[in-house]
Inverse folding.
């Protein structure tokens, strides 16, 4: 897959099959659209093109609202799109000026002049242009003038899988990893850097690596203990992970992410790791002392090993 950060470096193929959107999470609903444009491209000897926008439009239009957390960074999204058959990914910079582009201008400058669109496939709720004024009805009403073919993935097709990025975010925030993974059709992942912590885990036989997500807008699952895999340097390790405030040993309100790798010894500081969420074990609890915490962690490890077996 080729990646472009502007249209100037893009050369339109002979038959461009195009879709556009934020595609956060590249979930099952998105994958229906991606499968369809791949199918059309193969039928016509064409190439698939996906237009996305970065930063996320809400982060630009509402800079003081930090509530939206994303399922995928732009790098994670690119990997998933390539795995789903996209030939060309065009990442258009989303700016306040870009947000004022009228739907007609978007179609003429980007879809027609910039990409040479031969077939455009959109989801039933697709909007584009200033104030989201462009939609399927606008495209359909002007399709003869625009000169490309248009196809809409119907509400029935998308809703049949009952999925949306918002629904998946809600599942993750509730700690419902199983449901989130089902609708993503893959395990949820976080890429992070290992940073220094208080090293309390070492005192009770459960050394942990403190993690700092590489993408600041990455959604973090709800507070609790999870069975996970931890990947780095080409190897996958079974592990358990805690997201929380460590109320037994820490009185701060800061939420921390700590992972304990099973059967591992070594220095992970400043390494980048990938955490793959498999299931939730329990909610975070406050114990009376370190001995109670240690016993609980032993139980957590036993449960995690069974889940990851």
């Amino acid at each position: 897959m080729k990646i472009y950060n502007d249209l100037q470096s893009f050369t339109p193929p002979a038959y461009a099959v195009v879709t556009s959107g934020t595609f956060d999470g590249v979930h099952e609903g998105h994958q229906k659209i991606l499968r369809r444009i791949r199918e059309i491209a193969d039928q016509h000897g064409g190439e698939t093109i996906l237009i996305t926008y970065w930063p996320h439009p809400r982060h630009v239009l509402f800079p003081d609202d930090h509530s939206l957390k994303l399922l995928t960074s732009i790098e994670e999204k690119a990997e998933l799109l390539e795995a789903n058959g996209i030939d060309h990914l065009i990442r258009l910079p989303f700016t306040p000026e870009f947000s004022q582009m009228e739907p007609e201008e978007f179609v003429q400058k980007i879809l027609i002049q910039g990409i040479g669109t031969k077939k455009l496939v959109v989801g039933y709720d697709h909007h584009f242009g200033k104030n989201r004024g462009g939609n399927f009805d606008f495209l359909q009403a002007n399709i003869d003038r625009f000169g490309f073919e248009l196809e809409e993935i119907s509400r029935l097709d998308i809703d049949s899988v009952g999925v949306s990025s918002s629904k998946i975010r809600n599942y993750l925030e509730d700690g419902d990893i199983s449901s989130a993974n089902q609708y993503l059709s893959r395990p949820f992942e976080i890429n992070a850097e290992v940073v220094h912590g208080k090293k309390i885990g070492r005192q009770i036989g459960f050394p942990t690596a403190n993690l700092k997500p590489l993408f600041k807008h990455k959604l973090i699952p709800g507070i609790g203990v999870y069975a996970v895999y931890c990947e780095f340097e080409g190897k996958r390790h079974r592990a358990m992970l805690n997201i929380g405030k460590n109320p037994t040993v820490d009185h701060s309100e800061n939420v921390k992410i700590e992972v304990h790798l099973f059967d591992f010894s070594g220095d992970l500081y400043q390494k980048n790791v990938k955490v793959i969420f498999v299931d939730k074990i329990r909610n975070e609890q406050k114990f009376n002392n370190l001995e109670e915490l240690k016993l609980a962690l032993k139980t957590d490890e036993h449960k995690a090993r069974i889940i990851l077996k």
About this structure: The first helix runs from residue 28 to 44. The mean pLDDT is 93. The chain has two domains: 2-163, 188-308. The radius of gyration is 22 Å.
